[in-house]
Amino acid sequence: MKVKLHAGVSTFVPKPQTPFQWVSVDTRESIIAKQDLLKRELKDRNIKLSWTEPNDTLLEAWLSRGDRRLAEVIYTAWKSGAKFDAWGDQMKYDVWMAAFEEHGLDPSFYTHRQRRTDEIFPWDHISAAVRKNFLFQDFRQSLEGKIRVDCRLNCFACGILPTFSNLRRENPGEVWKCPEVKSPARNNQASVISNQLPVVGD
Ligand code: SF4
């Protein structure tokens, strides 16, 4: 039996409120080099390879990692005809570049820059319930090639419990998976880490 495989490869965009929010996005050159490698190495005609265009990835990264100044860029690009950029034939990369330039912004500021750990992110005022310090622990562990054990086996006090404690008490049950709402375990990993992130960067 012949098997046909369709492999869709997306370029990683480190998103806010995740352990990789400090990480830079690949440059266009790096994305193209990696995609070319896959195209060269996956030549089996039973394997169909598809990938995300670098321009699409960069636009996704600017929009998801940007700050409030991006609002003007989006509005200007929209006025200039950028409306259905997710459709390949409607992607108006030059329009976006012109909009960035018009507002004096360098798009690479939002993408190709490893963020220092003391940087205040544009999204820091939005709570996703998980503590920034917890995300940073995950980030550091990833650099060491480590992962956490399933937190249902060992709660790391990520921040969800205090945020949703009232909701949790009102809706008890197994569905939550997290431990019962009590004080966080004293001997877990999170309890020994300071509230301040160590400054890493430059
Ligand atoms: S068990 Fe719940 S509170 Fe504990 S680390 Fe996991 S998601 Fe967070």
Describe the structure in brief.
By secondary structure, the chain is mainly alpha-helical. The protein folds into two domains: 107 residues, no CATH class; 61 residues, no CATH class. Helix content is 36%, strand content 5%.
Ligands, deduplicated: iron/sulfur cluster
How can the largest sheet be summarized?
A: 2 strands, parallel
Question: Gap between N and C termini, in Å?
Answer: 54 Å
How many β strands by DSSP?
Answer: 2
Strand order of the largest sheet: 1-2
What is the total domain count?
2
Low-confidence runs: 184-195
List the helices and strands and how they pair.
Elements: E1 5-9, H1 28-41, E2 47-51, H2 54-65, H3 70-79, H4 93-102, H5 108-111, H6 132-143, H7 160-163, H8 165-170
Parallel strand pairs: 1-2
Helix pairs in contact: 3-4
The chain binds iron/sulfur cluster.
